[in-house]
Design goal:
With about 180 residues, the chain is mainly α. It contains five helices and two strands; from the N terminus they run αββαααα.
Length: about 180
């Protein structure tokens, strides 16, 4: 048997006493962030956040340059360039299509509907209306329900059948103090 298996009543096999934590010592944390002061932790986070933002901006600038250089006649969709030895460079080209305000869109669709025989059919197919949730109205209903309004309670019970609420990512920001004017 090795000497490591010969424990003694006094502690370690070599006779050393078993280490004991100090009477007032807190248990050591496994997370090294727990050992940082709040200021040090916030400053470390701020530094990482700034590094990420800088890296993201630099990566986007380089990505746009590479796409414009590799695909001077780029088209919307996937563009592919052979690089050699089976490698390919693929660039997904996307454009954002945003409509003007609803009144402008409705006015334009009415004008399209009056153009030729197909105008009304094209106007119907050109734009779809997507419902969007209005949080201010929902919160107003919650306030009314909290005051005992039975109509608000009934409406909210119906709304709960079409609404799913999930937690989003938290935001965090350190605001610098305003510089004093001299």
């Amino acid at each position: 048997m090795s000497e490591w298996n010969n424990s003694t009543a006094q502690g370690w096999p070599n006779g050393w006493p078993e280490p004991q934590p100090a009477a007032n010592a807190m248990p050591a944390s496994l997370n090294p962030l727990d050992n940082m002061s709040e200021d040090d932790l916030l400053m470390a986070w701020q530094k990482k956040k700034e590094a990420i933002e800088t890296a993201k901006a630099e990566e986007m600038e380089m990505r746009k340059y590479i796409v414009s250089r590799a695909f001077p006649a780029k088209t919307e969709g996937t563009n592919t360039k052979e690089l050699g030895q089976g490698y390919q460079l693929k660039a997904g080209i996307k454009y954002n299509y945003n409509l003007a305000d609803n009144d402008t869109v409705e006015d334009c669709l009415n004008k399209i509907a009056k153009v030729g025989n197909q105008g009304s059919f094209i106007a119907d197919r050109l734009v779809s209306w997507k419902p969007s949730f209005l949080l201010t109205e929902y919160r107003a209903l919650q306030e009314e329900k909290d005051k005992g309004d039975k109509t608000a309670l009934e409406i909210l019970s119906i709304v709960n059948n079409m609404l799913t609420i999930t937690e989003g990512a938290p935001t965090l920001e350190i605001k610098e103090p305003k510089k004093s004017k001299k």
